[in-house]
Structure formats: structure tokens, C-alpha cells
Amino acid sequence: MITFDEIRGNREVCAYMRKGDANLGALGFTEHGGGHAMKVAHDAAAILTALGHDAREIELAQIAGYMHDLGNCINRNDHAHTGALVAMQILTRMGMEPEEIAVICAAIGNHDEKTGVPVDAVSAAVILADKCDVRRSRVRADADFDIHDRVNYAAESSELEADGAARGITLLLELDDGICSVMDYFQIFTERMLMCRRAAAKLGCEFRMMANGNRVV
């Protein structure tokens, strides 16, 4: 059984992740390297844990969350699909069971809002964790500070909470209004928030977003 720690230590995964993050840095995107990968892995696992899913499904969500952006080492365009194929090759060589590879690759291939659909619990958890990773530390030192950078930089804190009893998944944001307003956030993230709503529904939950103490979704 392939573990999350084995994936984190895999030379191919590490190399492709570093190159993907470097590619996006050259294009002016926020950080998409190890920090983002670990955050998505952690939050995807935390969601399924809170909702009572079994231990192996939780670990598959961790693995998919960690590997979800590998396709950026090839090209930002269509990175979800190329990333799923890259992951499939790596996991096959590592000896993972095909049924588990299929779950992970479906989650990776469906995480982008342009083409993705939450097809199962693992993909839904990865979508939520990825789309809700908004934080100041993802802004690069040499950023152009466009609206995407401003939104991330304005996020003084962000936390994704899942409540199994209430069947709710909530993004809690504290935004510096002097840098970015809630309207600025929705200007670029409306499609992502709609995808989060669909992902939460797949998990039998309602998606909520709180910004500076006020519910906005």
C-alpha cells in the first residue's frame, strides 16, 4: 500500500512540483509548490476526516491533494489533465493498485474549475481544499501585484472548516479591506466558489464563506 509519506519523498514528484512552481513563477502566478501542495493535502484530508470517511480514502485525498498541480511542469493550460496522466505513470511505477490510481487521477483531472466536476468524495475534498487556499504567503516577492496577488495578499488569515454534525463546510476569511474588498474577491473567484458549492453538495454538505465575520456565501 503506497503511503502519503512515500509520495512526499518521491524524487519524480518533488522534481515535477519544483519545475511546475518555477514555470508559474515565470508566468506571474502565485506559489504552486510544496507549500500549496501540503495545504491542499492537509485540508482535503481534514474535510473527509470530519465527515467520517475511512482512513484509506482520507489518505488517497492527501495524496491527490499533494499531487494535484504536477501538470504545471508541462504547461499551465490543461494542467489538470496532463497532471493526472503524469501522476498515473508515477503511481503505476510505484506499484499502487489500479483502483486507487483511478481515484487519485480522477481527483487531479477534475480539480480545475474550467473543466472539473466533483465526481466522488476524494475529488470533492481536493476541489474544496485547492480553491480555498487563499493566503498572503502565496504571493511571490517579485509579484506584479495584479488583482490575484492583491486578493491573496489581503488574506490575513484563512481557514477551511468542516462540521460533520451540521453537514457544513465553511471558508473563514479575514481580509484587509484596504488592499482588497469582498467584491474584488468575488470578481475573480466567483467560478471557484460555485465549484466549491458543488463539491460540498457531493459530500452532502452546504458550502459557506465568511469574510470578516459576515456570511457572503
Describe the structure.
- It is a single chain.
- The protein has 217 residues and is α+β, with helices and mostly antiparallel strands.
- The protein has one domain (4-215): Hypothetical protein af1432, CATH 1.10.3210.
- Helices cover 55% and strands 12% of the residues.
- It is built from nine helices and four strands, in the order H-H-H-H-H-H-H-H-E-E-H-E-E.
- The protein has a four-stranded mixed sheet with strand order 1-2-3-4.
- A hairpin with a 4-residue loop joins strand 1 (155-163) and strand 2.
- Helix 3 crosses helix 7, helix 4 crosses helix 7 and helix 6 runs parallel beside helix 7.
- The termini are far apart.
- The model has no long low-confidence stretch (mean pLDDT 95).
How are the elements arranged and paired?
Elements: H1 4-8, H2 11-27, H3 34-50, H4 55-67, H5 79-94, H6 98-109, H7 121-131, H8 147-154, E1 155-163, E2 168-175, H9 182-202, E3 206-211, E4 214-215
Parallel strand pairs: 2-3
Antiparallel strand pairs: 1-2, 3-4
